[in-house]
Specification:
It is a single chain. Helix content is 72%, strand content 0%. It starts with 5 loop residues before the first helix and ends in an 11-residue tail after the last helix. Helix 5 (125-131) runs parallel beside helix 7. It is an all-alpha fold. The longest helix is centred in the middle third of the chain and has 46 residues, at 67-112. The protein is built from seven helices and no strands.
Length: 170
């Protein structure tokens, strides 16, 4: 379909880009102070419920005659909470970390014509992830400054003048 009908392909891509742009523009302008996002089902439903169950089962473990059952239930809830948090974070962040590194490699190559891997070995992950917020015109000088002064993540983010939002980060 796409190759046979280029006009439809163009219209489809344009509509998709318009939808994505309007979705991003409907959010507040992103900057250092508001760049953290929450996932409502996990942060405001699952974790409060599991913490309530942990508190309730701990209370019953110390106040009821069946303390062993309630204690085991509390331990089970704690294990479920820890596993859920670790797995959710691990899967999403591992993939996103790869994508951020690939995006920075691409942007660096596009701007300089050189591979980023040489510079990347001189930076740690948190520095690389902070550099993603720098727009193209600030990226190269900021990378050089980060390597020269060994800036930490917060310093890199605060050094960015024209914040490049990342609305896709989980």
């Amino acid at each position: 379909m796409f190759l046979k009908e280029p006009k439809k392909t163009f219209e489809f891509c344009r509509a998709k880009a318009k939808f994505i742009t309007s979705k991003k523009n409907s959010m507040a302008t992103q900057n250092y102070n508001n760049h953290i996002r929450f996932y409502t089902p996990h942060h405001f439903v699952f974790y409060p419920v599991i913490l309530f169950l942990i508190g309730l089962s701990t209370y019953f473990a110390f106040s009821q005659s069946e303390y062993l059952i309630w204690g085991m239930f509390a331990v089970l809830c704690i294990i479920i909470c820890c596993l859920a948090f670790m797995l959710r974070q691990h899967y999403a962040l591992t993939l996103q970390n790869r994508l951020v590194k690939l995006e920075l490699r691409y942007r660096y190559f596009t701007l300089t014509g050189k591979r980023f891997e040489i510079m990347e070995t001189q930076l740690n992950d948190s520095q690389i992830f902070s550099l993603r917020f720098a727009p193209d015109e600030e990226l190269i000088p900021l990378i050089e400054k980060t390597i020269a002064e060994n800036l930490d993540s917060k310093s890199i983010k605060k050094a960015i003048i024209n914040w490049k939002p990342d609305y896709e980060r989980v």
